[in-house]
Amino acid sequence: MSIGRKAIAEAVGTCWLVLGGVGSAVIAGEKIGNVGVAFAFGLTVLTMAYTFGHISGAHLNPAVTVGLASAGRFPRAEVLPYIVAQLVGGFIGAGLLLIIARGMPGGYDPAMSGLGANGYGAHSPAGYSASAAFFVEVVLTFFFVVVILGATSKRAMNTFGGIAIGLCLTLIHLVDLPITNASVNPARSTGPALFVGGWALRQLWMFWVAPLLGAALAGLAARALEPDQVLRKARPGPPGPAEELPTRA
Description:
By secondary structure, the chain is an all-alpha fold. The chain has nine helices and no strands. Helix 2 (62-70) packs across helix 5 and helix 5 packs antiparallel against helix 6 (161-180).
């Protein structure tokens, strides 16, 4: 599969994650509550895993891409194109959501209402400190990537991997929504922040550094636990191409 097709799949999938997940919070959050929003995020990943998993692996998240590369299960040369595609998808998803939200009675101001942006301190839904927010983002991203690596292992029942990953993201949101609005995904955080501006952009650094750190640690742990899962480079001569391993998120 060409990198161009993979990038398109990542962009479309990440757009859906932001539109469906963040959109559930912005448009229906008062009616469905945190449980409903958590399931909405889980369902976006679940549906895209089975839609685009065979094309790009359906990472939909720069942290997942970095975690897979750290574990040796994803080509490092494709990390940057994936992340760029995910950021484009997150931006488009947030833009589409804003167009819809502005149709509310009285309109919608992202700078005032937040557009589901992630934050800490005064911008945490429950007022959690920056240190607590950073810690939870590292820990939850670590376990999210651990689940992804386990569910997509050669030894796993890969047919059901998307279900495990979607439910894991649901659980993460049940924990993290009151703390930071739940990121564990720099692309999900960047899209809304670009439209909100101000405080959202000033606090965006955390929702890059913490998830990427957690994901990298998860990848290193997986590499130590299952070294045989690391991608092997093609050897010169007659033997076949490099071994390919599942990378679906």
